[in-house]
Design a protein that fits this description.
503 residues; Beta Polymerase, domain 2; Cytochrome-c3 Hydrogenase, chain B; five-stranded mixed β-sheet; three-stranded antiparallel β-sheet; 17 helices; 17 strands; 40% helix; 17% strand
């Protein structure tokens, strides 16, 4: 095998504080990196295309550092990573749809985001008129007494669209294949040529339930590219917003999972707590979801004494009411019967796919960007990362429970040590092209933002990678061997983002 290239590895403090350069590699070295990913030496953070090139971001867990490799694809093709390392397959298919670049040797060349409804082909790579596409070819399944159950893309209730093709033997699922892309908004194309202010707005709308996390990732990338010094108070306020967002989503998920196990009372109780979090966010920061509050250079709104008091009262209320809900969950036999042992995700799969958040940590993958690729304000806080090894729906619930408790601790720590001073630094172009990388821990897991700016400070390329890219494939594995009726429970325990994935 070709020797691994000498990549420009950068530790977390450095890549968030200075411009980030991708390392050019030869095709043979690119393939060597693919083999290293397959062997578990690195974790794939993302893979994306640019004009005439393909890039991938890698994480060296042992050294807590990251690198970006870039391979030339001026001929319209690049060596497939997915043929060696399955987590790259859907990202390669998306790159092919958006830029028209062919991953040579790919195991799966079907379109992914492009459903033949855009009116154009390859919108980021020399757009051409759309052509009729054949019906999407789902993977064949052979065996006795098998039948298929198509579900979606339109579902009951107010949820996003996605198609799930079940192959079952009786009630037992032997294969699930997903078809996503229905919420594609053209984020990457809208980013091209946008100002930093417009880019920040678009980033915060990539996945609505993670608007703070996406905004922080984008801001990190801008601040690194332009070497912006962010005020300490702004970092602390970003942390408060991020933990309020995490708190609201985890509370909603705990209730939603219980509701899918026919225990609606838990949904009602956690729904009240979630609503209280959103109201506190509005009182403190002027918006229930804190959208457009995080901007490059800091934050757009300060926190006054009244807002602090509201957040402190919220945390006291959750600490008072949440333990009894945890006990109710843990002592309700009908819930345990549904969640324990259901939707198993093997630890080696979680590790191989670099699954972040509660999906990975419930299957033994001990990774949290706030700790392992540390950034402000978490570098000054006592941070606990819960990990479980049961790998099932119940484990994913318990990770959320522990994170709710720890969110309260982190918010209290930040309020008790809230620095004074300005909350925003001016961001200005530097007269030359720059690139930056942002990595943050959203409530689902790690979110990546790669940003390339021109000399005037406008966006040449922005790639946003949601944690769901590496979690959706594991849902297909989690449901195998379970009954179809358990799919809503498994699906909710993952709660992957459609919009964040579909871009």
């Amino acid at each position: 095998m070709t020797k691994l290239p000498d990549l420009t590895w950068t530790r977390s403090r450095d890549f968030r504080a200075a411009p980030f350069s991708a390392t050019p590699v030869r095709p043979s070295e690119w393939t060597a990196l693919a083999h290293a990913l397959s062997a578990g030496h690195f974790t794939l953070l993302s893979l994306w295309a640019e004009e005439g090139a393909a890039c991938m971001a890698l994480h060296d867990a042992d050294a807590r550092r990251v690198a970006v490799a870039r391979v030339d694809a001026a001929t319209g093709a690049f060596p497939s990573v997915g043929v060696h390392h399955a987590p790259a397959q859907r990202l390669e298919r998306a790159a092919a749809d958006l830029f028209g670049l062919t991953p040579e040797g790919a195991a799966d060349a079907r379109p992914w985001l492009d459903h033949g409804r855009w009116g154009i082909r390859h919108p980021l790579g020399g757009a051409s008129p759309d052509a009729a596409q054949p019906p999407y070819a789902f993977l064949p399944v052979e065996g006795d007494s098998l039948h298929q159950v198509p579900v979606g893309p339109v579902h009951a209730g107010i949820i996003e669209p996605g198609h799930f093709r079940f192959t079952a033997q009786g009630e037992t699922v032997v294969r699930l294949e997903e078809r996503l892309g229905y919420t594609h908004k053209g984020i990457d194309r809208l980013m091209r040529g946008a100002s930093l202010a417009r880019g920040a707005e678009l980033a915060g709308r990539t996945s609505g339930d993670s608007t703070v996390a996406y905004s922080v990732a984008f801001a990190q990338a801008v601040e690194a590219a332009l070497s912006v010094a962010v005020p300490r108070r702004a970092f602390a306020l970003r942390g408060l917003m991020a933990e309020l967002e995490r708190l609201a989503n985890h509370l909603g998920d705990i209730g939603g999972i219980c509701n899918d196990a026919a225990f609606a009372m838990m949904l009602a109780q956690t729904g009240i707590l979630r609503e209280n979090v959103l109201r506190a966010a509005h009182a403190a920061f002027g918006h229930r979801f804190m959208r457009d509050r995080v901007v490059p250079g800091g934050v757009a709104v300060d926190l006054d004494a009244e807002g602090e008091a509201v957040i402190k009262a919220l945390i006291a209320d959750i600490r008072d009411r949440f333990p009894s809900l945890v006990e109710l969950y843990d002592t309700t036999a009908s819930l345990m019967d549904r969640t324990v042992g259901t939707g198993h995700v093997a630890p080696d799969l979680a590790r191989r796919f670099g699954a972040g958040g509660y999906v990975g940590r419930a299957s033994g993958r001990d990774f949290d960007t706030r700790r392992d690729l540390r950034y402000a304000p978490y570098d000054m806080l006592r941070l606990e990362v819960p990990v479980r090894h049961e790998c099932d729906v119940n484990a994913r619930v318990w990770i959320r429970i522990r994170e709710v408790e720890h969110c309260c601790s982190l918010i209290t720590q930040m309020l008790n040590a809230l620095p004074t001073g300005p909350v925003l630094t001016e961001v200005a172009p530097v007269g030359e092209p720059r690139a930056g990388l942002g990595l943050v821990e959203g409530f689902r897991g790690d979110i990546l933002a790669w940003l390339a700016l021109d000399a005037e400070g406008r966006i040449n390329r922005c790639h946003m990678r949601d944690p769901s890219w590496f979690q959706w494939p594991l849902l297909e594995a989690a449901i195998e061997g379970n009954i179809i009726a358990d799919f809503p429970l498994c699906n909710k325990s993952f709660n992957c983002s459609y919009s964040g994935h579909d871009l």
